Amino acid sequence: MKGLPCFFFLLTIVCVTAISCNEGSNETTTQEETLKDTTALYGNRNFVLPELSPTARDVIAQWSLYEDFENEVKLLNGNTVEALRDKTERLIAHTDSLSKKIPDSLFSNPIFSRLIIVKTRVGLLHQEIRKSRLDSAKIQESLYEMNVSVENLVIQINEKFQKEAIDLQRKENEEKELEKQQRFLDSVYQIELQDKKNESL
After folding, report:
1. Do residues 47 and 79 make contact, with C-beta atoms less than 8 angstroms apart?
2. Is 71 exposed, middle or buried (0-12, 13-18, 19+ CB in 10 A)?
3. Is residue 62 classed as helix, strand or coil in its secondary structure?
4. How far is Cα 40 from Cα 51, in angstroms, rounded to an integer?
């Protein structure tokens, strides 16, 4: 019976030591994960933004804010969380300004909608990389969605000018057809006049 208190004392020491060791290894694992998260590179380093058509590029030149936004997007992929935090802050400011100052020559509901989606995706990415516990898979997914939203914006801008070019071509063709029909009617009218003159002689 006298050995029983000694046994409990030793058991307590062993349990405390085991728990301390376990907590120490958990701390080490957490520190390693944090270090890994801060040095890991996120995004698709091969991501290439679609090219704007020459017509779209000429009009975009009037929208000076777009160039800053485009340059930031091109440099977004392949960065650490710390770099992404800075870049997404700048992108939030760019997308906010872009959505408020779309030139009339560029404005359309589809372009405005795509821009709002980009703004939302930037915001979601920014939220994801500011969390205290980083989730690499979610950061990658947010970056992917961000890339897709910007691609869709560029495609929509190109489509606007492509559609306008097609509409302009159609209008020119219709005008040419009307001119052709008018010339034909004029020539028929001239022939009828000539016939009447000949009949009266």
Report:
1. no
2. exposed
3. coil
4. 29
Q: Tell me the C-alpha distance between 84 and 47, whole Å.
A: 15
For helices 81-100 and 136-200, the axis angle rounded to 10 degrees is 30
**CA-CA distance, 1 to 7, in Å (whole number)?**
10
- The answer to whether 63 and 107 have CB atoms below 8 angstroms apart is no
Neighbours of 9 (CB within 10 A): 10
pLDDT of residue 88: 95
Phi/psi at 22 (5° precision): -65, -45
Residue 123: the pLDDT is 96
Domains of the chain (ranges; CATH) run: 50-163 (1.20.120)
Distance of CA 194 to the CA centre of its chain: 68
pLDDT < 70 regions, the chain: 1-38, 165, 167-173, 175, 201
The pLDDT tens digits of the residues spanning 103-149 come to 998 999 999 999 999 999 999 999 999 999 999 999 999 999 999 99
Query: Is the distance from CB of 100 to CB of 66 less than 8 angstroms?
Result: no
Burial call 99-138: b when 16+ CB within 10 Å, e when fewer: eeebeeebeeeebeebbebbbebbbbbbebbeeeebeeee
Distance separating alpha carbons of residues 111 and 7, to the nearest angstrom: 76
